[in-house]
Amino acid sequence: MLWLALLALAWSASAVSCLRLCLAAADAPRLPGADEDTGRPGAPGRLTLPEAAFLAGGPHRVTTLALVSMHREGRLLLAHTGWTTVVDPEGGDDLERSVIGAAGPGGQERTAAVRDAVAGGAAVRRLGDRLVAQGLAVPESARSAVRSALRAVRAAGVLTVVLAAGAVLSLPGGVAAGPVAVWFALPLLLTLGALAAARFEVHAYTGWASPLGAGRLTALVAHAAAADDGTDADGGRARLTALAVFGIGAIEDPLLRTALNGTGTPPLPDPR
After folding, report:
1. What integer pLDDT is reported at residue 42 of this predicted model?
2. What is the DSSP letter of 206?
3. 145 vs 139: CA distance, rounded Å
């Protein structure tokens, strides 16, 4: 019967995807907890803003932080048209030099292209590697494997529902749909149970920060809030901290948000 073949397919998809998730969780390295001291060089201490940006939002968040920081210092311009123009070609560190280099020899490039180039560049990659070595960030291999396995389990759940509907609709007259639906409920329960367990067992592997790194992020936000006394200097630091931790949505300036989310309209030519 057709519904039996569809049921076998649903069971196969559910079982394989759940097994894949179990293997991904088993292969993932143990992450230090928020209350643990890793004993690794450089692990203790407060995070820098680029480190916080990486742990909170990954490479593109680091690039956004660098662009906004340099823009506030007047060292580059972020136009609402979606273009970045370098004003000061001297970078203070590897990350800033990466931003300047991504703008090209003319010192002007689409902001989206600059962000992509810097996010995939050596400076951000070294930052991520250092955070992984300190136990603050989740290794890329573990994060990708777990996320891919979770997507497979979700897809298997959706496929089970579709196959169940197809099986019920294809039943010949006189055959009760209830028992068939119950059989399909079993592989669906398997996928839902795996997803529920994953919320507790592998949730730490789906983000950029390890539990230890997440704890450092929380401490950084608390310290920034306590240190903000309303002065321009402290306020600027607090705004950059909010950007690093919460992303572009934390930027109060609507023109700056537009500049970072610009569509890439070319700037007007220089009349000179």
Report:
1. 46
2. S
3. 10
Place of tokens 């970072």: 260
**Phi and psi dihedrals of 48, rounded to 5?**
-80, 165
As to burial, measured by CB atoms within 10 angstroms (0-12 exposed, 13-18 middle, 19+ buried), residue 44 is exposed
DSSP class of residue 15 equals H
pLDDT tens figures, 92-136: 889 999 999 998 888 889 999 999 999 999 999 999 999 999 889
Distance of CA 137 to the CA centre of its chain: 12
Helix and strand totals (H; E) in the chain: 11, 3
Q: By three-state DSSP, how is residue 264 classified?
A: coil
Taking residues 248-267, report their average pLDDT.
Answer: 74
Confidence of residue 188 (pLDDT cuts 50, 70, 90): very high
Element spanning 85, H or E: strand 83-86
Residue 84 carries which DSSP code?
Answer: E
**What residues are paired with 77 via a beta bridge?**
85
Q: Does position 272 have pLDDT exceeding 70, yes or no?
A: no
Whole-number Å distance between alpha carbons of 141 and 59: 15
Contact, 117 vs 145, CB < 8 A? no
| Residue 257, number of CB atoms within 10 A of its CB | 15
Q: How far apart are CA 104 and CA 113, in angstroms?
A: 10
Place of tokens 């590897």: 94
CA distance 28 to 22: 10
pLDDT at 50 (0 to 100): 94
Task: Fill in the amino acid letter for 8.
Answer: A
Residue with structure tokens 């979700």? Answer: 154
Show the beta-strand stretches assigned E in 100-243.
108-110
Q: Which two tokens stand for residue 269?
A: 């030519």
Q: What are phi and psi of 38, to 5 degrees?
A: -70, -25
